[in-house]
């Protein structure tokens, strides 16, 4: 959604992946450290959308306190991640979508700032899928940037508005996804393992 909404961000993402990876192979996880703009884009999507605005509710097992506030036993508690991700004392212009906020003056990823993004919750029950999700988000974004170009329907401009729920869901939208080149690299990557060998050596039982 942010790619068709912010075409200049999409172009910058494509330029970075083209420069680092080139056009003769697909991006891989080994490229991650050399692609800080892609990582800053992902963190900004997580921060800005805060698509899991509240964590799963838990309940206190004893009387306790947090920052001087008393919280009695059996109180339902959850974290307002959306509010932390839009806190103006932490984020400048929190309502602007700006991946560059995560880049330092040298263009490297500001890891201190990325740790302020809260989307996988905190504490003992925080999401166990955090690292896996970040790997998947990186590969997905790098591949989309490398292989695809996404545009909005001029008759129905894309917004980043959402419906409320346990997760925030985008309003219905209309986009066009086109290939930047041909299917050659994708065909090779998605070919079943051993497919060439099977074609070269047909079974003697057939
Ligand atoms: C961007 C993707 C994801 C987001 C934003 C996300 C976010 C969350 C959040 C906010 C919680 C609630 C933590 C709490 O109770 O305070 C949670 C729990 C959990 N998540 Fe994720 N998650 C994501 C992907 C995944 C994936 C890929 C897996 C599995 C491979 C996963 C497995 C779990 C499990 C098992 C829990 C329950 C942990 C527990 O109760 O101890 N999540 N997740």
UniProtKB/TrEMBL annotation:
GO BP terms in the entry: hormone biosynthetic process; progesterone metabolic process
Family: Belongs to the cytochrome P450 family.
Organism domain of life: Eukaryota
GO molecular function, one term: heme binding
Residues that hold heme according to the record: 127
Lineage: Eukaryota, Metazoa, Chordata, Craniata, Vertebrata
Protein name, UniProt field: Cytochrome P450 1B1
Pfam families in UniProt: p450
InterPro entries with a match to the protein in the record: Cyt_P450, Cyt_P450_CS, Cyt_P450_E_grp-I, Cyt_P450_sf
Keywords: Heme, Iron, Metal-binding, Monooxygenase, Oxidoreductase
Cofactors that this protein relies on: heme
